[in-house]
Amino acid sequence: MHGVRSRRSWGWLWIVALLLGACATQPEVQIPTRAVLPSPTLTLTAIPTHPPTQTPAPIVQSPAASTSTAPPAIDTPTYPPPPAVTSFPALVGNINVSNAPGIALRRAPSPNADVISVLPGGTVVTAQARTDDNQWIEVAADQGVGWVAASDVYALQSLTILQSVGQGEAQPTSIVAVPTITPSLTITPTLFAEPTAVTLGDIPAMEHRLQTTPILDNLTADRVLWIFQRGRDFGLQPRIFTTIGDSNTSNGDFLQPIGMGVDIYCNFATYAYLQAVVDYFSVAPTAEDSNSFTHIRNSITARKGFNSSAVLDPFWATDAACYPGESPLICEYRTIRPSIAIIMLGGIDVANLKLSTADYAANMRAIVQTSIQQGIIPVLTTFIVLPDRGEIYERSLEFNMTLLDIARDEQIPLINLWAAAQTLPDDGIGPDHTHLKAQVGSYCSFNGAQQQFGGTLRNLLTLQALDQLRQNVLSH
To answer: Minimal CA–CA distance to 283: which of 240, 252, 330, 347?
Structure first.
């Protein structure tokens, strides 16, 4: 660890200091966890990992280097021909259930039919058919194929496009009306790499795995292109991205100055090639936002104090644009229709000692799998906790292990901020030991500030990841 503190540049524009710098020093307020998704089977003594075959790739320094970043250190996946699927995903159970533990999956479209299983809140299923009156939806879930009441189903696309299979017994509410979009892609199964055991609690082993995972990983995997093509068929916007995170994302210094004016607030120095990715995403996602970078201040899923549970909990979908029963995640995706989601969650979760590693993993997998089902590329970011925080530090390593597992299992992009920040003073963390260190005037100045401040480094890595996706995925 280094004890170096950089002096704040007070000569920077006072408007920027008021607008962006003020938030970074405010204490974090943790949002209470209302609902944690049921945990999948997870062996807490052995988290799988893939043995690295190369050292971490250095941060890209030039356009030429950007295009030659080494591919992920895993075997090239071969996707078997998937079965034809004419339906598309819906999110079931994304509502407040007061009198039952979940949503009933029934054998027939009737409230009196036998119950096959109870689907937990947040379960992702595939919609297959509907009744003529739109009151019942046939879905395929891990628990089997059956019928759920349409009033319990929320999706980004209208379920009225599904094939009608007759009349069911009426329910009091109907499907939420949203634009009709018919996808043509089929669903590709998740592929799993052969694991090498890393024991949870073995701090050196977990640190080694993080240090040897590429800084930018899985950005050109076949799976990523498939997700993008799926989203394109859903009518999502390739030049729009969104963000999911806590105050390290929403506090004003993450990406927002870039969207406010590169010429005014930034110094790209030798990274001038990144102007192309800024131009590409300079499209207004809403009437209130000039581009995806400035949209962060209005993002429904980037809020101070957010944890992985809150993103999935309808209680926190307080925006006027959200439907009753929608989670912040689905509300943000429906209203913005992005092609990419930049995700960094864990800094709040790790301080909640009642939240197990398995619970965090379940929440993050639900966020990622929901994103994939909706055709949105999830980009995970590892997070940093200083070693002097004791038990919290060990938990943070375990939580980061689950992020590496999810990125490997789902073959989705990963920004390994943890590894990249190891050479920074205090690992890029500020004096509050919680937030990424940022300095007014250096938020997006890549003339050496990225080697001093974790916030500047994260901005650089995120732009580099977006640029690789722009060149290698979004252009197809």
So the answer is: 240
